[in-house]
Structures are given as C-alpha cells and as structure tokens.
C-alpha cells in the first residue's frame, strides 16, 4: 500500500495534480518573470502611482507569449484557457495592475480584433500586439455609463465613405500608452466597434491621476473629438452590444483566476507572518483564533482556484456559458477581497505597510471587485438565469 503524499500548506487539496506538464511550464514561466521583473519594484511603483517602463514590460510579456495567449495565429501562443488562467493568477499574485495590462491587451483589445475584425485588421494589428510592440486599449465605459453600456453617448456618423467619432470613454486601462484603441460607439445601425489608431487627429488619452487603487497601472480617459476614420476601421463582424459584451466575458474569465492570485499572496503573507511573529510568548499561529482565520482563508482560496479550473476546462471544451463566468467572477472577487482583509488583521499594524503586500492587494481588489461588472450586475445575471426573470430594469 503506497503512502499518502505529504500535506502541502500551499496546495492543501493537491490541485497541482490537475495540471499537465505544459500547464506547469506556462505557470512557472510567468511566475518567474513576475518574480524577477515585478515583485522587486512594485511597492515603489504603487507608492509613486506609476508604472514606469510599461512599454518594455509589454515587450517582455510578449516575448514569453503572455499577450493574447489564448488566441490562435497572428503570433499568438494558442494556449489553452486553463493555461491563460494560470498566467493571470501568477500575474495578479504580483499585482492586479500587471494582470490588467495583460487582460486588456489580450482579452479585450486583441480578442475584439481577432473575433470581429477583418483579415486586414488582424494582419495589421495582432502580430505587433502579440509581441508587445503595440499596446492596445478598449473603450466601452463612459463617464455616465458603466454598468449600462447601452446608454453610451459616443457616436459615430457616416460622412461619405468615412466614419466620424465623437465622445468620451473613462477608466480605460493602457489608454495613454496605447498605439491602438478598440472603441465602441452608437451609430444609426446600432452599436459598432472601431479600430482607432492612437495617432488619429482628434484622439487623445489624458491619464487619470489621484487613484488609491491600481496605482501601478496606467488608467486614462479617451477623448474623441470628431475623429475621422476610413470605412475599413469598423469591425465588420460586430453589431450590437453582443460584440463588446462577449469581449467582457473573456476578460472576466481572466479575473476569476487573477483574483485568486492576489488572495494567494495575501494568504501566504499571513501564514508566514503568523508563524514568525510572537506575542504572549508564542507564535501568532499558535492561537486558536489565528488558526481559524488561516483555515477559513485557505478554504475559500482553494475553493476559488478549483472553481477557476472547472470553468477553464469548460471553456476549453467550448461549454462555458456567460452566466457561469459571472458565477466565477462574483464568487472569486468577493472571496479574494475578504481573504486580503482577513490577512491584514493577522498582520496587525504591519498589514498597512508597503513592506508587506497585503494592503496593496486589498486596495487593488476594490477595483477588481467592480470592473468588468459589479457584484450587483453579476448577481442579477445569475438571478435572471436562475429565475427566468429579467430584473435589470425593475
């Protein structure tokens, strides 16, 4: 009779057994890159509220195949959904801002062009974006319309064979460093998507400052002041809100994994701190209440990782529904932020210091909790799926 494997406090359910050799190789490559290029600097970036060298970071991410990695062709890695998820987890274990850079590039901007673009658009934009030579952004959210994109005011009108875009987009990751923007606008034909080169006259992307979350990330407003585009700038296969919403589903899937990366880092920080810090003559980990916190954090963390794996397998099998992505995004972001907050209590006053990663991850997750769909929106998506009744408007 073979002996049981040793209990691993960092993998208590043996989830690694679900991974193949290629899965582990992807995970380890991204983890190594993040450890070398992000972790030594990210607390300083966060404190300064900037992401210096973002273009160099993008090219490095391209060199390891992390940009548009689940897409096929055009220089993309053709990775599985699970492998993409593992990459998101490792990136967000370093910082949510880095995972956001990759998610917006691959799951929003590149995915939109890959899924809805013409062959000419794909050939022009996807190879340099996959290499990190061109950074992309995705313009859907507006100053007055976040959860209700159908109320967008950005408008595109025809002028001869051209299109002329006017409007504003808000809270756009990568905006001021992007070489290309995928912008969604109302038209007389319904909502359409447009590929907008950042050097187009009338296009500007002022950076948003004074953030207390995602500080190691570039966030911008997009201003479109009668931006004139040729007829072939429109995404030919996208009509109506289904286009941008399908892109959001792809990005939300990455968040299901990524949020567990932030939670893992905070759990591990709390576990390490509790075993080393002594109070009343014994390690914090020797007190029942501390052990209860650690146990509860571990349970929710690894349940969330299992959920992410399950959804990833369904996506790879072509069986993942948008409602199931909402299920994962709702659960994992809520549990991740609770894990980070609990970890902060274990660390006491040290939990608010940037010498430790906990408060940085906790404040980042305040954004992750609400972008790509707030808690309430995902509750209503699930509520409609469960009851058959649409409660969004009443």
Automatic annotation (TrEMBL):
Its cofactor is FAD. Keywords: FAD, Flavoprotein, Oxidoreductase, Transit peptide. The keyword Oxidoreductase applies. Residues 137-227 form the Acyl-CoA oxidase/dehydrogenase middle domain. Gene3D superfamilies: Acyl-CoA dehydrogenase/oxidase, N-terminal domain (1.10.540.10), Butyryl-CoA Dehydrogenase, subunit A, domain 2 (2.40.110.10), Butyryl-CoA Dehydrogenase, subunit A, domain 3 (1.20.140.10). Residues 21-133 form the Acyl-CoA dehydrogenase/oxidase N-terminal domain. InterPro entries: Acyl-CoA_Oxase/DH_mid-dom (IPR006091), Acyl-CoA_Oxase/DH_mid-dom_sf (IPR046373), AcylCo_DH-like_C (IPR036250), AcylCo_DH/oxidase_C (IPR009075), AcylCoA_DH/ox_N (IPR013786), AcylCoA_DH/ox_N_sf (IPR037069), AcylCoA_DH/oxidase_NM_dom_sf (IPR009100), Glutaryl-CoA_DH_mitochondrial (IPR052033). The lineage of its organism: Bacteria, Bacillati, Actinomycetota, Actinomycetes, Kitasatosporales. This is Acyl-CoA dehydrogenase family protein. It comes from Streptomyces oryzae. Residues 239-386 form the Acyl-CoA dehydrogenase/oxidase C-terminal domain. Belongs to the acyl-CoA dehydrogenase family. The keyword Transmembrane helix does not apply. PANTHER family: GLUTARYL-COA DEHYDROGENASE, MITOCHONDRIAL.
